[in-house]
Specification:
17 helices; four-stranded antiparallel sheet; alpha+beta; single chain; about 475 residues; seven-stranded antiparallel sheet; 17 strands
Length: about 475
């Protein structure tokens, strides 16, 4: 069986390497999918961090178009659209209407242009094979939005939850098959575009290393990976499969890599949080432009979105958001409760208790309602940040807990000083040319982190503790940079 499988793999790899674009049947994207993608693009980009612009974004688009022309999608230069997202999540994704997105965090993990070509080719493969349509339906399974998910996570235990979990597992298994097919298609496109197929295993290897690194530092970052970061099941098997396919083409080690060109393009790219969107540093969230800072309880994780920060832990979940508001604190509290169930349920809200927190007027209250598994406490703490601006926490805990688990958090919210805000700088990629005397230890000591500097440096550059550096070799560092103007 193993021999037969190997022969089939060799045959498939040879076929994907030799199939000319002209021999493929052209696929025209569904006009309804195209219209929907055009309509939703701006909101999707905003929700996922905003779009990068300038030479780097144009470069990414050029590579996407280079591989996309071999996808069999009709009129690829007009049908396929490529966007670089200003996001700290390492991911790429696509939607059925031909829109492909890749994050600047993923760009920072890759080491040459062939890896970028495969990543974009993989997403184009999802479009060409119509995979993303199914994934999109899965992503829309929760009509109540983020607070519906928060309440549902606390309820738990019901029969509907069991069915939902089973359907998700079934879809994950199906999606894994789609990933394999998209890997094969991405490899085909990059080969036909002249790239070294080693880039396929290269980017999957980078993601595997990053996953291991995240597991190593987990618990120190207090960062929770958002759901949209997990659209691609990743496994060691997937990387080994891509490497085997690349070897079977007989072209491994040949073709375009463009390492220096790629490294020049990612010089200065932001890594981790963009201060303009707020920064998670351990258990503390700081937004230097809004001058906001708060600290989550020990053991709780944060996920930073475009307009909200979600907090989750063993005793509950919370979300922080707000901004311009014309009403008073009591109005803000009622509006927050209404948003909790998207207006689908009414329940009595006790009058808020008015207090002062770190010099700010605040209103706090808790309402109790019954869920499938027992009573639930929903709490709101709203702050009069300044005239016409209110921020608030919404918290969900099991009945009887109230704001208890989150009391230190709501009491920690404060305005930082201009000096504290100015001290917050982004982490950026810097490409360093190795000089005589440089070592793994001396270079990793320059990494802009307080811990695991050597491990982060090795993972970023696909090195191991025994690797030898040669003068003239180029490596990536993550250092502190300057804010965007």
């Amino acid at each position: 069986m193993a021999v037969l499988r190997k022969k089939l793999l060799l045959f498939a790899a040879a076929s994907l390497a030799l199939t000319p674009a002209a021999a493929q049947q052209l696929r025209y994207l569904d006009p309804r999918d195209v219209a929907e993608a055009q309509r939703d693009n701006a909101q999707l980009v905003q929700d996922l961090g905003g779009a990068e612009t300038g030479p780097r974004a144009a470069y990414v688009t050029s590579i996407g178009r280079r591989v996309g022309q071999f996808s069999g999608v009709a009129n690829p230069n007009q049908a396929l659209h490529f966007t670089t997202l200003n996001s700290a999540v390492e991911n790429a994704l696509s939607v059925p209407g031909g829109y492909v997105y890749i994050t600047r965090q993923l760009l920072g993990l890759m080491n040459d242009e062939s890896e970028l070509a495969f990543a974009l080719g993989h997403e184009v493969g999802h479009v060409a094979a119509n995979h993303a349509h199914i994934r999109e339906q899965y992503a829309q399974r929760n009509p109540l939005g983020v607070f519906g998910a928060i309440v549902g996570a606390i309820f738990g235990g019901g029969f509907s939850d069991i069915l939902s979990a089973r359907s998700r597992m079934d879809l994950l298994s199906f999606s894994r098959d789609q990933e394999y097919q998209a890997d094969t298609l991405g490899l085909r496109y990059m080969l036909m575009a002249g790239y070294d197929p080693a880039g396929a295993a290269g980017v999957l290897g980078a993601l595997t290393r990053q996953s291991r690194l995240s597991a190593l530092v987990q618990g120190r970052t207090n960062r929770q990976t958002p759901e949209w970061a997990s659209t691609h099941p990743l496994s060691e098997n997937r990387m080994q499969r891509a490497l085997a396919e690349a070897r079977a083409t007989g072209r491994l080690g040949t073709g375009i890599r463009n390492r220096d060109v790629y490294l020049n393009q990612i010089e200065g790219v932001f890594v981790d949080d963009d201060p303009a969107q707020g920064v998670i540093d351990g258990a503390t969230f700081t937004h230097p432009d809004l001058r906001i800072q708060f600290t989550v309880p020990q053991g709780y994780l944060m996920s930073n979105g475009t307009d909200a920060v979600t907090v989750s832990g063993s005793a509950g979940k919370a979300q922080f958001k707000g901004g311009a508001f014309r009403g008073n604190l009591d109005d803000a509290v009622l509006l927050a409760f209404r948003g909790l169930t998207q207006g689908t349920a009414n329940y009595p809200v006790p009058p808020p208790r008015h207090v002062t927190i770190n010099g700010m007027p605040a209103a706090v209250t808790t309402a109790r309602f019954n869920g499938e598994s027992g009573p639930i406490d929903a709490s709101v703490a709203a702050y009069q940040w300044e005239p016409g601006r209110i921020y608030f926490f919404v918290m969900i805990t099991p009945g009887g807990y109230g704001i208890g688990p989150f009391a230190p958090m709501i009491n920690s919210l404060r305005k930082i000083t201009p000096g504290e805000a100015a001290a917050i700088r982004p982490r950026v990629i810097h490409v360093e040319t190795v000089r005589p005397g440089d070592t793994l230890q001396s270079l990793s000591a320059r990494m802009a982190y307080r811990d695991y500097r050597l491990e982060r440096f090795l993972s970023l550059n696909d090195l191991n503790p025994g690797s030898r550096l040669a003068p003239g070799q180029k490596v990536k560092l993550i250092v502190y940079g300057s804010r965007r103007s």
